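Changelog excerpt

This revision adds worked examples to the README so contributors can see how folded entries look when concatenated. The first example is reproduced verbatim below.
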Amino acid sequence: MTWAHQLLTRGNAMTSESTGPDNSGPWGNGPQNRSSDIDAFMRQGRQHFGGLFPGGPPSVRGLLIAAAIAVAGIGIWSSYYTVPSDSVAVIQRFGKYVADVPPGLHFKFPMGIDAATIVPVKRQLKQEFGFTTPGGNDPYQSPTDGRRETEMVTGDLNAALVEWVVQYRISDPVKFLFEVREPAATLRYVSESVMREVVGDRTVDEVITIGRQEIESEALLKMQALATKYAMGISIDQVQLKNINPPEPVQSSFNEVNQAQQEKERLINEARREYNKVIPLAEGEKDQRIREADGYRLKRINEAEGDAARFTALLTEYQKAPDVTRRRIYIETLQDVMPAIGSKIIVDGSTGSILPLLNLDRQKENQP
C-alpha cells in the first residue's frame, strides 16, 4: 500500500470520528488525542517524502536557494533577444509603448516587465486575392474564401472573376501595432472594397482586355489614400492584376468571342501590311515618273534655249561676214556628214557619165 493510500485511509477514519455523538472534532474525542494524531501524521509524511531525497528532506533554506536560482535563470533567459536585419523591435513596458529597437542583440527587463514585438519593416509583404501561393506563412496572405473575393460586377452589369495581388511594406510599426486592430485583415477589406469600386466603373471588355493598367493605377492611389486615412502604418507599393476571366457558365462563349476578335485583328493587320507594301511602292513610282517628266521638260527647254542662243550667235556673226560665215558653216556641216558616208562619189561637171567611177569589183565582194 502506498503512502498516498495510507493518508487517504487515515483521512477517512478521522472524518468518521468527527461525526461522533459528542462532536469533539476530526482529531479524536478530546484534546489529548488530537495532538498525538497530528504528530503521528507529520512523522509519517516526513518518512514518505524523505524517500525522494537520499540525504534526507531538504531544509527551507535549500528550497529558497533553489527557487532563487531558478528565478534568476528564467530572468536571464528572458532578458535578451535578437532583432533580424530586416526588422525592428517595438518595446512595451507593462503594456505601454517605450521605444523602437534597431536590429541586433539587445536586453530588456525580464519576467514579463518588457515585451518585445518583432516587426519586419524592410520586408515587402503581399496579399493574394483569389488564389494561393504554396509556402505562404502569413495567415492574412491567402484568401479564406477566394471565390467570393473574385466575383465582381462590372459597370455594364456583367460578371467577372478578378484575381490580384497587393504588395506593401510596414512604414510605421507603432501605428501598425496599436492604431488599428488587425491591420492585415483591415488591408484585405480595404483592398477588396477599392477593387470592387474600380471594376464597377468599367465595362467587362475594359476589365478583361484594355483597361488593366488603368485599373491597377487607380486602385493603387485609392488604397494608399485609405491606408493613410486609417493610420494603418502601411505603405502600399504596387497592385497587380493577375487572371481576369468571365464566369464559368459563359467562359466558353466568351473565349469564342475573343477568338473571333483576334481573327478580326489578324485580318486587319494583314490588310494593313499589304496596304503598307503596295501603296508606298505606287507612291514611289508616281514620284519617280513625275521627277523623270520634270527632268525631261527641263532638258528640252534647256536644249531649245541653247539652240536658239546658238542660232542667234550665228546670225550675228553671219551679218558681220556673210561669206566667211557661210563657208565655215558649210565646212562644219561636211565634217559632221562625211564621216557617216561609207563610199563617196565626187562628180565632175565635165564628166559625161558616172559609170567609170563605180568600183564594181568591191560591190561584188560585198554581196552575199
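The second example, added in the same revision:
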Amino acid sequence: MSSASHAEEEAKAAAKPASPAVAVVRTVVARDTTIASDLIFTGDIQAQSQVNVAFRTNGKIAKRLVEVGDHVTADRVLAKLDPQEQRANLNNAQAALTSAEALLTQAKLNFKRQEQLMASGYTTRPSYDDAEQQLRTTQASVDSAKAALGSAEEQFSYTDLKAGVDGIVLSRTFEVGQVVQTGQTVLVMAQDGPRDAVFNIFEAVLAAPPESKTVAVTLQADPRVTAVGRVREISPSVDAASGTVRVKVGLDETPKAMSLGAVVIGTGKFRPRQAIVLPWSALYRWENGPAVWVRDPASGTVSPRTVTIERYGPNTIALKGGVEPGEEVVIAGIQLLRPGQTVAVAETLEATR
C-alpha cells in the first residue's frame, strides 16, 4: 500500500509543469538627468533676394547672351528682341518731330513779319493774333513730337534685356525665336549680397524651438568651412507635400566656398530639460510600441512598461514618460523575459547623468 502511494505521488509530481527558470539580468536605477540635445538638419545656400527679370515690351527674341550660372552686372545686356517694330515707331516719331519743327520755323517767321507790320500799321489786329496763335500751336506740336520721340526711344531701348542688379542667373525660360509678352518672366536671378541657409524642418521640432536663434552652419563637402547665422524667417504654413516648415537662417558672413546651392548642415541647441536616460539595450517592443522592463524589488518580478521617447542618441535613449525616477529598469537579459517572471539581479547600475 505504501509503495503504491509513493509511486502515485511521484507520477503526480512528474505531471506538474516545471516552474519557470529564474532569469539573470542586469538593471539600472532610473534617475532624472538634465539633457541639452543638438538639433541637426541639412539644407542649402540661397540668396536672400531673388529677382524675376522680364522684357518691358512685346516682341520676338533675336539673341540670348547669357546662360544659367553666369554672373552678370546690372547694365549687361542679357538678351535682345527683334527691334523692327520699335525701330519703325522710332523713325515715325523722328519724322513727326522734323515736320513739327519745320512748321514751327514757318510760324516763327510769319509771326515776326506780322509783328513788324503791326508796328508800322500795315496789318490788322486779327491777322497779328492769328499769327501768334499759329506760333503757339506749332510750338505745342513740337513739344508733343519730342515727347513722342522720347517714348519711342525708350521703347526701342526696351528691346535690350537688362537685370538692373548684379547677381547670378538661376534659371531661364526662353529661347531664341520665342515671342514674349510685356512683364513675362524669362530669367530668375539671385541678387548679390547676403545669403541664407534654408532648411526644411518638421513642424513638431518647432513646437519646442532651440534655446538660441543662433545656428552653426557647416559645409557638408568640407566641414572646415563654417559660418554662424540667425533665424531670419519661419514660414507660417506647412508644406503639404513634405509636411515640413521652411526656415531661413541669415548668415552673418558667407564663406566663398558656400556658393549658391551648396549643401550645408545646421546645428542648434535645445533648452536644457529633465529626462531619464537609459542605454539602448533597455529598449523593448511591446504592443506595437516602445517599452522597457521594470523590476519590482518587493516581488523580484518584471513587467513591460510602455514609454514615450524624448530623443534617440548614439548609445542611449531619453524618455519623456513611462518610467519614474527610482524605478529599476532591466538593461541586459531582456530577450527571454515574460510578464511576471522572477529574475535574479547580477548587477545594478546607476543611471547616466
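Reviewer comment on example two: Confidence is low (pLDDT under 50) at residues 10-19. Helices lie at 2-15, 84-120, 125-157, 203-206.
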